[in-house]
């Protein structure tokens, strides 16, 4: 009886071990060089940062151009008076000569003010042109930096990939 239980426990152990090994073996995939390079391009932080610098440079060009465009500013102010101001004025009655009180309400219950301002710069002393040139130079530098980083990452992946293949063959 003890041998039978020992045999069943050993079989269960090997079945579980085979399942774990099969799951572990499924986690490994054979990568081609192109797949490895594409994975590196998608996940490398230097490439992501360089792409963000290019986006930042494009936004700076938009900002430089916007300095030459008109701007519209608006304002709206609403006011509600809870207790209006009341003046009490006494006038003598022409017939009797007695003083009568009259109440005068001053102002309105609701007030609204609207305003808009349109501003168009006509001449800003070359500020817009200089800022636009600087932003375009920065974009060019950012794009060159992105190309350099992409080439560097690709070269590193190719060298690592070939090192692994060489190590495997040796």
What would a concise description of this structure say?
It is built from four helices and four strands. With 170 residues, the chain is an alpha+beta fold. α2 packs antiparallel against α4 and α3 runs antiparallel to α4.
How does this structure look, described?
The chain is an alpha+beta fold. The protein is built from four helices and four strands. The strands form two sheets. The protein has a two-stranded antiparallel sheet. Helix 2 runs antiparallel to helix 4 and helix 3 runs antiparallel to helix 4. The longest helix has 43 residues.
Strand content: 15-25%
> How many strand elements?
4
Shape: elongated
Helix and strand content put the structural class at alpha+beta
Distance between the termini: 51 Å
Query: How is the largest sheet built, in terms of strand order?
Result: 1-4
Q: What is the radius of gyration computed over CA atoms, rounded to a whole number of angstroms?
A: 40 Å
Question: In sequence order, what are the helices and strands, one letter per element?
Answer: HHHEEEEH
How much helix, percentage-wise, in residues? Answer: 55-70%
Q: Give the count of helical stretches.
A: 4
Assembly context of the chains: single chain
């Amino acid at each position: 009886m003890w041998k039978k239980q020992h045999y069943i426990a050993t079989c269960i152990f090997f079945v579980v071990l085979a399942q774990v090994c099969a799951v572990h073996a499924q986690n490994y995939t054979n990568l081609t060089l192109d797949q490895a390079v594409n994975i590196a391009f998608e996940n490398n932080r230097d490439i992501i940062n360089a792409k963000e610098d290019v986006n930042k440079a494009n936004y700076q060009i938009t900002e430089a151009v916007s300095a030459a465009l008109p701007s519209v500013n608006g304002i709206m102010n609403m006011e509600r008076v809870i207790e209006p101001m009341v003046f009490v004025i006494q006038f003598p009655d022409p017939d009797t000569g007695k003083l009568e009180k009259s109440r005068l309400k001053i102002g309105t219950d609701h007030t609204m003010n609207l305003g808009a301002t349109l501003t168009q710069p006509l001449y800003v002393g070359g500020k817009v042109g200089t800022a636009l040139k600087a932003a375009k130079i920065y974009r060019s530098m950012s794009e060159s930096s992105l190309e350099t980083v992409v080439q560097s990452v690709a070269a590193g992946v190719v060298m690592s990939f070939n090192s692994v293949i060489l190590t495997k063959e040796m």
